[in-house]
Design brief:
It is built from three helices and no strands. It is mainly alpha-helical and 108 residues long. The protein has one domain. The longest helix is centred in the last third of the chain and has 37 residues.
């Protein structure tokens, strides 16, 4: 039981980091369309390699290497942890933007 809980935590945290890295590696490839100077070729190649490896990690991390009572239950737990962390992060972001806009209006 303890191993499964540790595995859920590790898998969820690792996937959260992977999602962040996917965005980071995608920016030079897809997110700079409005900029006149394209990123250098070496940066696009490195970003593609990083994106490919991170996507491969996310795909391969679906396959468990430990025995758990329920694979579906494990996947659900990991998914709920990731969803909860993203909802919490979004709420913090929205609260910060509201606070910043209130302070901006008060300063004007």
């Amino acid at each position: 039981m303890r191993l499964a809980q540790t595995s859920v935590s590790f898998t969820a945290v690792s996937r959260l980091y992977a999602l962040t890295y996917i965005v980071m590696f995608a920016i030079p490839l897809f997110g700079l369309r409005g900029i006149t100077a394209r990123p250098p070729l070496w940066l696009r190649v490195a970003s593609f390699a990083g994106l490919a490896m991170t996507l491969l990690y996310v795909i391969l991390s679906v396959f468990l290497i430990i025995a758990v009572a329920s694979v579906a239950g494990f996947a659900l737990e990991v998914s709920l942890v990731i969803l909860a962390a993203n909802v919490l992060g979004s709420a913090i972001f929205v609260a910060g933007r509201r606070t910043a806009s209130i302070h901006q209006v008060a300063a004007d």
